[in-house]
What we know:
- About 45% of the residues lie in helices and about 25% in strands.
- It is α/β, with parallel strands linked by helices.
- A hairpin with a 2-residue loop joins β1 (about 50) and β2 (about 55).
- α1 (about 5-15) crosses α2, α1 (about 5-15) crosses α4 and α2 (about 20-25) packs across α3.
- The protein is rod-shaped, with a radius of gyration of 32 Å.
Amino acid sequence: MTIRHLRTFCTVCDEGGITRAAEKLCVAQPSVSQTIAELERYYGVKLFERVGRRLVLTPEGERLRIKAGEAVFSFQEFEEAAADTCARHFVRMGTSVTIGQTVLPRLVKELERRVDNLEFRAVIDSAANVEKLVEEGSLDFAAVEGSVSRALHAEEFASDRLIAVCAPSLGLGTLNAKQISELPLLLRIRGSASRDLFDSRLASLGLAVQPKLQSSSNSALLSFAREGLGVAVLPKALTTADLKQGTLKEVQLSGLDLSRRWFLIRRSDKKLSPAQETACSLLKSFYAEGNQI
């Protein structure tokens, strides 16, 4: 049985006969008769009785008419939803916190300008959590920093570095790795890409730290640094405004490389749609224009 059988049955009921139903459906009368006969034979039920020259629904037919109408209506709703979905362009993107704060707002605004009927969804989280969502298929692609699972397709598109910043009143100059490790540090929580990079680079030099403050909030770390309560180690892009205003100054680091690479990641079996490709291209073009992360 197909939706055509049920639609034909409903039309015969609505029009009161085979001839009118055939006209309404723009098909030959024998085709309608055959469709009703197939329904009756398949389900083993008599749907109509002929009273004189009229077709009258049997009690069984009356009951099934209601259910058939519900099924036809549901199918029409499905077709309308499918057509609407086909007209929409879905982008499910993930980013690490740095891109989420600095680049993503501009990206979404430009993408909405270029792509009609856009359905955009984003997740801003740690690189590890975002990568997991990509692996699960919950996100189409993501922009993350640091190392990437070999199970994912990764395309390097940018780089940045972490810098140490503090209030000018602290009067700190150039410091080496050991000196920076002994300061009251304001760091991201363990598991964040920034913190993991900082810890691993210090560990390679035989050093470890006990931060004065650990937080998942970059804003909190910056606030503490402005008040002279310690030295924050954060992506440079997040400190630009404070450095320009003079509320923070960069502490130069000697012998400690805190640069890192950024990747666009997706599942190896994932084919990006045109809208998703546009989002990736925009992100790469922002960096190429000099809007470094």
